[in-house]
Amino acid sequence: MARPPFRHKGGNDKQLEGLVAASLWRQAISTCEKRIKKGDKSDEALATKAHVLLECPDPNRREQGRKELDALLDKNPPITDIEVLLYITQFAVYRREPDRPYTSLWERAAKARPNEEELYRRWFAAALATGSYNGAQKAALLYRNAFPKRQDSHFWYIVANHILSSLPTLEDRERTLYGQLSSKTIAKAAAAGAVSGDSTSIGLALHTSEDLLLLLRIYRSQNKYKEALEVLDDSRIGINSPIGKKQWTLVRQKIELLELSDQWEALWDYCNTLLEDASTKIHQEQSKPQSLAFGRAGDDWKVWTGLLAATSHISTKVWVN
Questions:
Q1: What is the 3-state secondary structure (H, E, C) of the chain?
Q2: CA pair distance 13, 5, nearest whole angstrom
Q3: Which residues of 262-298 are buried (b: 16+ CB within 10 A; e: fewer)?
Q4: 92 pLDDT band (50/70/90 cuts)?
Q5: CA 115/CA 125 separation, integer angstroms
Q6: Does residue 227 contact residue 262 with C-beta atoms inside 8 Å?
Q7: pLDDT of 194 higher than 90
Q8: Are 250 and 244 in contact (CB under 8 A)?
Q9: By the 8 A CB rule, do 104 and 132 touch?
């Protein structure tokens, strides 16, 4: 990762960049100090000085930079300017520092301004982009607590926990915990049903087919095939629901889930029904443009492979018996 640019008064600091490019470290540090002495004691100016010191080849200067940056992270009242928070975070990622102090930095800002929705949103986006998934989970949790009617606040929390549950770097018990948090929360959304209207006011509920696909992905990752199939068959939120809209993606999901759960007879019936329905509609609409509820089921090899797999397993079972 390339070093982020130094900043001054909201923009890139060309003067400092030129000095650093020429390895004129003393002049670069002096420039930062003169600005501060002249009255620019903003968090951005203090952060820029700390960043310059930390980039300096002199170890004593780097130690000074670390102390000044730590003081900035711990200052009271905390930093709440979103651009400065991002500025500090970008340099932390560049230096490959542990993300915990910077998660704490954002958390303190959020607690200082609990009603500033943009702060949560930018924090979550930055944490995801930099791979700070614990930070993303914390951002989503605080966002959800502050704005419980915002549907996306709940689903960001679900997504963050789902990502954490799949990280191989975590211990099994941690992955299990995060998996439980994601599945339990999205199960509550499913129980609430599909809600139309403005997503800023519906709270924890399913709203789009993307929400439904996320639920299926989480259930599949936890081998909850039966529960996933029950959702797809639910008239409120499943394939035939207002949010499912008989989308072919969901049909394919059901075929795969029936295979994964070894429900071969149910799979055979389902695939056969899809093909029969498609054939019937083709004959009924020979003189009309083709507009089938499930598209041309016979054109999707997934249906045929599902039918063949089901036939093979059923035949094997009959032969063995």
A1: CCCCCCEECCEECHHHHHHHHCCCHHHHHHHHHHHHHCCCCCHHHHHHHHHHHHHCCCHHHHHHHHHHHHHHHCCCCCCCCHHHHHHHHHHHHHCCCCCHHHHHHHHHHHHHCCCCHHHHHHHHHHHHHCCCHHHHHHHHHHHHHHCCCCHHHHHHHHHHHHHHHCCCCCCHHHHHHHHHHHHHHHHHHHHHCECCCCCCCCCCCECCHHHHHHHHHHHHHCCCHHHHHHHHCCCCCCCCCCCCCCCHHHHHHHHHHHHHCCCHHHHHHHHHHHHHHHHHHHHHCCCCCCCCCCCCHHHCHHHHHHHHHHHHHHHHHHHHC
A2: 7
A3: ebbeebbebbeebbeebeebeeeeeeeeeebebeebe
A4: very high
A5: 18
A6: no
A7: no
A8: yes
A9: no
CA 141 to chain centre: 13
Confidence at residue 227, expressed as pLDDT on a 0 to 100 scale: 96
- Residue 197, pLDDT above cutoff 70: yes
Higher pLDDT, 30 or 285: 30
The span from the CA of 160 to the CA of 125, in Å, is: 11
Tell me if 186 sits within 8 A of 137, measured CB to CB.
Answer: no
Gap between the Cα atoms of 258 and 261, Å rounded: 5
Measure the CA–CA gap between 271 and 303, rounded to whole angstroms. Answer: 6
Q: In this structure, what token pair is assigned to residue 312?
A: 């093979």
Per-residue pLDDT tens digits for 127-167: 999 999 999 999 999 999 999 999 999 999 999 999 999 99
Q: 207 with 243: CB under 8 angstroms? A: yes
The residue type at 221: S
